[in-house]
């Protein structure tokens, strides 16, 4: 079917099309006028995305849509609807009870029935790309619609606060009991540490340990020094035993021995002079020899005394080394014991610190939950309360009439085409070509309605009528 054929069909059946369209539009308007009027009251709630100053909880960009969707579900929940029923005292409403009796015959729970009725009239919409949620309620009475809508808003805000406060109160009770337990553990740990310090006398243990460690370092230095002295004196004693006394460095460095050797040298020089001048038998020569012998004896005696002093010095050095080493070992044991005591005390101290940290953490959480349990509002606020609507929201007569016009037009056109398909007629040249299967050689112009003698001619009209009634069939 071409567009021209379609237009010719509509032109031929325009009365039917207009009748159907008028009938549908009239029916839509009639039904709209017959339906009871409904009034819609709308309230707006805005959500604050800023962090909570108590719990310091913020909502990220990915979490915020899910949070708003959750709030929409809460607004539509049975818990909020039950609060509305209780707030408006609908249990005592006789009209609502009569409706319940008529609808259910007295079967079931009246409160649950009211909750279902309220939920059917509630519409919650989340505004895209904003923090505003609109809550609408539809009812036959405009004042009832506004009152119920505001009641839903208040019930939602109270429910959100309860959802926030109730867990906070439970956590607050838990953290309070936990804080008492941790406080007892802290007191026990402190008592153990104090008892250990009294038992071991650890008062200012770190300072005392530092002093004892310094003393141990000093004794260690003395031990090293005495070891060097003992090694030196032992070497000198070994040399004294292996060599003659006069060859020892200590003997040669002794001032008395050096003085005696100087006197011996002078006496030997004098003896040589006396021998050369007086002879061996002279009394002076004999006296000089006696003096030399006495000096040598004194030198030998002094050398032996100095050599014996080296051994005594070595013995004294070894004794001092042993004493200092013993003192060093005693000091080292004392420092080790103090370190062990300090390590043991540090274990008790760490227990005290761990208990203190745990108590501080629990007390922080307890204070936070205690503040949250006393909260009276959430991050949701009423942006616009619901007001009494002046005009009904439904039925929408103009919209219904337009829809009836649209649907009636579609239906009328469809009916006209179906009727045309059932009883096909020749409407234009294309129909002749389609029906006969022959090409059209030419067409005559449309004749005038005025005849030759100036009178109306009925022949063209009659021809068109006959043409319109000609069925499409092949010869």
UniProtKB/TrEMBL annotation:
Membrane topology summary: Multi-pass membrane protein
Coiled-coil region list: 172-199, 257-305
Gene Ontology CC annotation, any one: plasma membrane
Species of the source: Methylibium petroleiphilum (strain ATCC BAA-1232 / LMG 22953 / PM1)
Record keyword Cell wall biogenesis/degradation present: no
GO molecular function (one): protein tyrosine kinase activity
Pfam families, per database record: Wzz
Transmembrane segments: 397-419
Family matches, as PANTHER family: FERRIC ENTEROBACTIN TRANSPORT PROTEIN FEPE, TYROSINE-PROTEIN KINASE
UniProt protein name: Chain length determinant protein
Subcellular localization, as worded in the UniProt entry: Cell membrane
């Amino acid at each position: 079917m071409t567009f021209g054929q379609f237009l010719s069909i509509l032109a031929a059946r325009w009365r039917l099309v207009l009748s159907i369209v008028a009938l549908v539009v009239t029916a839509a308007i009639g039904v709209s006028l017959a339906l009871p009027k409904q009034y819609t009251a709308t309230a707006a709630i805005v959500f604050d995305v800023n962090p909570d100053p108590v719990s310091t909880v913020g909502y990220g960009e990915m979490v915020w849509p899910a949070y708003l969707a959750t709030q929409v579900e809460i607004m539509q929940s049975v818990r909020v609807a039950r609060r509305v029923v209780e707030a408006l005292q609908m249990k005592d409403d006789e009209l609502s009870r009569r409706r319940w009796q008529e609808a259910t015959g007295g079967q079931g729970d009246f409160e649950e029935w009211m909750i279902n009725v309220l939920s059917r009239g509630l519409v919650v919409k989340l505004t895209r790309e904003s923090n505003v949620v609109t809550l609408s309620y539809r009812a036959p009475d405009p004042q009832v619609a506004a009152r119920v809508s505001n009641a839903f808003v208040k019930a939602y805000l109270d429910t959100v606060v309860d959802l926030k406060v109730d867990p906070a109160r439970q956590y607050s009770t838990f953290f309070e009991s936990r804080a008492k337990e941790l406080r007892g553990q802290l007191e026990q740990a402190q008592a153990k540490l104090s008892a250990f310090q009294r038992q071991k006398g650890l008062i200012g243990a770190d300072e005392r340990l530092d002093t004892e460690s310094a003393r141990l370092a000093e004794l260690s230095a003395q031990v090293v020094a005495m070891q060097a002295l003992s090694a030196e004196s032992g070497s000198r004693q070994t040399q004294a035993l292996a060599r003659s006394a006069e060859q020892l460095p200590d003997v040669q460095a002794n001032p008395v021995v050096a003085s005696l050797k100087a006197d011996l040298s002078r006496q030997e020089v004098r003896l040589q002079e006396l021998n050369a001048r007086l002879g061996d038998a002279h009394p002076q020569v004999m006296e000089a020899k006696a003096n030399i012998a006495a000096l040598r004896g004194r030198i030998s005696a002094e050398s032996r005394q100095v050599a014996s002093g080296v051994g005594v010095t070595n013995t004294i050095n070894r004794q001092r080394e042993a004493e200092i080493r013993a003192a060093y070992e005693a000091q080292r044991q004392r420092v080790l014991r103090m370190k062990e005591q300090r390590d043991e005390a540090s274990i008790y101290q760490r227990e005290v610190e761990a208990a203190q940290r745990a108590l501080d953490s629990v007390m922080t959480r307890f204070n936070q939950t205690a503040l949250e349990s006393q909260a009276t509002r959430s991050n949701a606020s009423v942006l616009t309360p619901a007001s009494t609507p002046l005009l009904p929201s439904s039925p929408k007569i103009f919209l219904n009439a337009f829809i009836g016009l649209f649907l009636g037009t579609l239906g009328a056109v469809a009916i006209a085409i179906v009727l045309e398909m059932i009883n096909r007629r020749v409407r234009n040249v294309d129909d002749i070509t389609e029906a006969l299967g022959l090409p059209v050689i030419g067409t005559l112009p449309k004749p005038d309605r005025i005849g030759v003698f100036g009178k109306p001619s009925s022949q063209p009209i009659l021809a068109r009528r006959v043409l319109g009634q000609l069925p499409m069939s092949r010869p």
